[in-house]
Amino acid sequence: MIAETLQRIGTVAVFLVRLLVQCGPALRKPRAVVHQIYNAGARSLIIIMLSGLFVGMVLGLQGFDLLQRFGSEDALGVAAALGLLKELGPVVTALLFAGRAGTALTSEIGLMRATDQLTAMEMMAVDPLRHVVAPRFIGGVVAMPLLVAIFNVIGLFGAQLIGVQLMGVDPGAFWSQMQAAVELDDVNEGIVKSVCFGLACSLIAVHEGYTAKPTAEGVGLATTRTVVISSVLTLLLDYILTAAFLGR
Amino acid sequence: MKPQRSLEIGTGLFVLLGFAALFYLTTQLPGSGLAMGEAPGYRVQARFDNVGDLKPGSPVSMAGVRIGRVESIGFDSGAYRAVVTLRIDSEYDQIPDDSDASIQTQGLLGGKYVGIGAGGSETFLKDGGQIEFTQSAIVLESLVNKFFANFASRGSEEAPAGTTEKTP
């Protein structure tokens, strides 16, 4: 069991190195990368924006209810902004990304494997890592921080919608306290997290697809594993990164 | 050719939207964002008995207007006092040198800031100057203690009033 786990980690690491080597050449064909940014990013936009709106609204509602007990509902802006920027934005986006874009990547590559397309490319001395996997990986890595940023802005709008419009928090206090309390470091923490999650989720997704058993069942299993591993890894990384940032 | 074009436009739109959001988050959201630290200013020192939880970066304000930031907080091991270095923006260069500095709290639960009250002197604070009159942070606990001590001594005189219990 332990040896198996170690072996898995090892193969993923080796795969990552091989993939990174191919990323440079893959960037020389920007069309393919643009296509994958579209697949991973632009097509996840609706679900990210909807989720961001509702997460922000719930944050506004819960935050207001909690802060009201201490008579400091003016701090709602701070609570919502920090909650979104540092935790909810990156984590929820990564989880949605794993479910929306990660599964698509895995099943696409896995199906290519199952229908021998990847093998055919290898036969023709065309490296599938460079032409199939690397553009998808880069697409995911680029799309993730942008999706998180959009999620955060929409979430803030949602929190503002509930807090200010519905609950009657003073808009001036909401925004000015937020601006006074949020430091550039807080924003950076969210960006670093989103980049790390993007790398992790994209890597897991393409790796699971690439190493999927070439059967219908194998592709299904690989897709499931993508969601499970990405989600757990995201939450684990989140804890480690939070601890690292707080430790400063 | 057509679907490829709309795909590229879609991607461009997405990337633009993402960067706009990133730009907003990094520049507009933190009040102390990218603009911080560039404005020229001069340094003044003030010694406090107790700085509470004042932190480097806390605002320095005069009449409610932010005129600078706390640059560093040190400790004078000779006088056992905190040495706070304030960095005042250079446009506010007409602060009388007998002004007083006090550590105040923004709202009930807000952070600490240094408030400066203008004095009446004809000469102004200069770089490396010192604010002589200071008032320490109000420690909430001691205030609460004082309040309860007062309350208890008054409460014992009219004890029966306090013993009635609420019925559900």
Describe the fold and architecture.
The complex is a heterodimer of chains A (248) and B (168). By secondary structure, chain A is mainly alpha-helical. Chain A has one domain (33-242). Chain A has helices at residues 2-27, 30-40, 45-69, 76-114, 117-123, 128-166, 171-181, 184-210, 216-246. In chain A, 48% of the residues are buried. With 168 residues, chain B is an alpha/beta fold. Chain B folds into 2 domains: 8-36; 41-142, no CATH class. Chain B has an 8-stranded mixed sheet, with no helix packed on it. In chain B, strand 3 (65-76) and strand 4 form a beta hairpin. The longest helix of chain B has 27 residues, at 2-28. Chain B is flat. Chain B starts with a helix and ends in a 5-residue tail after the last helix. Chain A binds chain B through residues 34-35, 37-38, 41-42, 45, 70-72, 74-75, 81, 85, 142-143, 145-147, 149-150, 152-153, 176-184, 186-187, 190-191, and chain B through 7-8, 10-11, 13-15, 17-19, 21-22, 24-26, 28-34, 36, 57, 59, 106-111.
How is the topology of this model organized?
The complex is a heterodimer of chains A (248) and B (168).
Chain A: H1 2-27, H2 30-40, H3 45-69, H4 76-114, H5 117-123, H6 128-166, H7 171-181, H8 184-210, H9 216-246
Helix pairs in contact in A: 1-6, 2-6, 3-4, 3-6, 4-6, 4-7, 4-8, 4-9, 6-8, 8-9
Chain B: H1 2-28, E1 41-48, E2 59-62, E3 65-76, E4 81-89, E5 100-105, E6 112-117, E7 129-131, E8 133-135, H2 140-155, H3 159-163
Parallel strand pairs in B: 1-7, 2-6, 5-8
Antiparallel strand pairs in B: 1-4, 2-3, 3-4, 5-6
Report the sheet with the most strands of chain B, covering strand number, pairing sense and barrel closure: 8 strands, mixed
Largest interface by residue count? Answer: A-B, 36 and 31 residues
Write down how many β-strands of chain B occur, each being a DSSP E stretch of 2 or more residues: 8
Strand content of chain A: under 5%
Low-confidence stretches of chain B: 33-37, 161-168
* Overall pLDDT level of chain A: 90
Q: What order do the helices and strands of chain A follow?
A: HHHHHHHHH
User: What is the percent of helical residues of chain B?
Assistant: 25-40%
Q: Please state the structural category of chain B.
A: alpha/beta
Query: What is the succession of H and E elements of chain B?
Result: HEEEEEEEEHH
